[in-house]
Automatic annotation (TrEMBL):
Amino acid composition bias (Basic and acidic residues), ranges on this chain: 47-61
Source species: Rhizobium phaseoli
Region (Disordered): 44-70
Protein name from the UniProt record: GcrA cell cycle regulator
Origin superkingdom: Bacteria
Amino acid sequence: MRELFWTEDRIVKAAQLWNEGRSARQIAELFGSKKNTVINMAHRNRDRFPARQDTRQKPPEVDPAPVEPIRHPDRVRRVTFSGAEVTMPRVPFIDGPAP
């Protein structure tokens, strides 16, 4: 029979490293395993491995200024049968001369 890799002692040590802020990859390197092994073990022992907060900085929310669409003289906006608005080439005998 194969021995269990994650013994109680290893789980306790991994939980300490996790709570210190070490990544799953760093913990795996210390134990000689793979990152996914650590992640799966942490998932099975959620009570010992609390979820980490997202530490990435979020960009400040800025209200975008309304952008005026660029009007190309050789193109016109049309509404298709399905109701979609599209931009198509100007057809002189339908749309008249370019402004």
